[in-house]
Amino acid sequence: MKKDHFTVYEEWKSLLDHEDPLYAELMQIAGDEDAIKDRFYKDLSFGTAGLRGKLGVGTNRMNRLTVGGATQGIADLIRQEGEEACRMGVVIAHDPRHNSKEFSRLTASILAANGIKAYVFDDLRPTPQLAYVIRKLKTISGINITASHNPKEYNGYKAYWSDGCQVGQEIADRMTEKIRAVDIFRDVKIMDFDKAVNEGLIEILSHKWDTDYLNEVKSLSIHGKEELDLSIPIVYTPLNGAGHVPFTSMLRDMGYTDWHEVLEQSEPDPDFTTVGYPNPEDPKAFAYAEKLGAKYDAELLMATDPDADRFAIEVRRKDGSYLPLNGNQTGYILVNYILEGRKSANSLPDNGAMVKSIVTSTLSTVIAKSYGVKMFESLTGFKNICGRIPYIEESGLTYLFGYEESVGYASSVNIRDKDGISAGLLVAEAAAYYRKKGKTLLEVLEDIYEKYGYFAEDEPNIVLDGIEGSERIGRMMSSLRSDLPTVVAGIKVEKCIDYDKGYEDIPPSNVLRFFLEDGSWFAIRPSGTEPKIKFYFYAISDSREDALKKNQSIRDEIFMRINSVE
What we know:
Elements: H1 5-15, H2 21-28, H3 33-40, E1 50-54, H4 64-81, H5 83-88, E2 90-94, H6 100-113, E3 118-120, H7 127-137, E4 141-145, E5 154-161, H8 169-180, H9 193-198, E6 202-204, H10 208-218, E7 234-237, H11 244-253, E8 259-261, H12 287-296, E9 300-304, E10 311-316, E11 322-324, H13 327-344, E12 352-357, H14 363-370, E13 374-378, H15 382-385, H16 389-394, E14 398-404, E15 408-410, H17 420-436, H18 441-452, E16 454-458, E17 461-463, H19 466-482, E18 487-488, E19 491-498, E20 512-516, E21 521-526, E22 532-541, H20 544-563
Helix pairs in contact: 1-3, 4-6, 4-8, 11-17, 13-14, 13-17, 13-18
């Protein structure tokens, strides 16, 4: 029987050393029923591919005990796989957040204590580099200490398996079972980090792996330097994260001559002092980049998030101001450039395949079809998007690209996670290629709309924190399922897909997707890693302006209905 939150709180208080900082935090919330409940009413659970939560004391927080319990559970699973799995080992990376390096060393120390080889980097590295190294080192697993784009109060623990992908549902379920069996105060084995290094159980990776990863990224280039205007003015910001070294190295190596980095955001900063919310999907994250862009008359602004897996851009308008492109729009440009570019370079295979998530715009499907390329769909998250790659290869198809609207792009078959560095290479190259032809990316985007249809995209969300928020999100989804809309903004609903029990070859997920008779559609799903419910609206019309108006009408009607649920 599950213990109540107050009982678990008291157990922690009795078992923690009184000199432990976690004990001090326990005492700070003594008598505060709401605070105790929020920290202890549940255990952090695997979401998209691991743990994510606020830093602090409690079972519902990221701290050395919850990290230790997760690692011991994964170690128990690996040991169950046999001696060869233990020898294959685990690669561990981390981002610049508070406690990230400490959690990564703790993770390595626990694996070592369990007789499992651990590989660690000497400092922070991009998430996609971890995904790359897993496959190249042929390890059984990989672990990344990161909360991606979340605010500074958060940290996370992302798990990978031997295919270089974030763990799929089967492995995640097995991990969860093992983790739940761990007593975090009594079962976790820990070896001294330096001793484990001396005994060869922990290996600090050389910079060879930085070079190898960058070479893989650079191999994605489509056109030669003679076809590019490498003098295109560019501004880049790593938002105080792991992108600084690899991204600037990539720009330098590819021969760009007029690029500038936002220096205030070049070095790691766990407080993200200059940006607050370090999500490049949020245009406010580009404030410093826009100032630097104005100084150098930059045509393109680019940003990666703290672990450099997310990537977003802004493009210069004719009046000199900057227009943020959403993840779908950047996706259109990338899909179009990869296909158009490879066709012109005679490197487009006859059996090409791409992948997008079920909540990502279908305009990219139309573009792919026009080039004879098959577009697969998957659930959100790159464990699902890149998880399609084995099936694609077994079907005799050639993987070309995968992406989702939340500014995540996977361009290499050997890097099976979203990768802001390779996305940056391709977007910069596209901008330089079209500039050589006298066009801007904004003009290319307009050409895409004119050729394939004017789509409008909007991906709002409602944040609802805590237990009450989680329960209200559940009621919102239940309300929709019990009374499915049949007409929205005066347009008939032609079809509704409820993925709750799975659909065709897509596994079950808490997602509703509505298709309207005019080709517009929208989807609704609770986030698996954050306290929010997400909405995805896509309208199509004869002009971008009309599509935007229609999208707003659909959004207003759905929001009115969803907000009426108490």
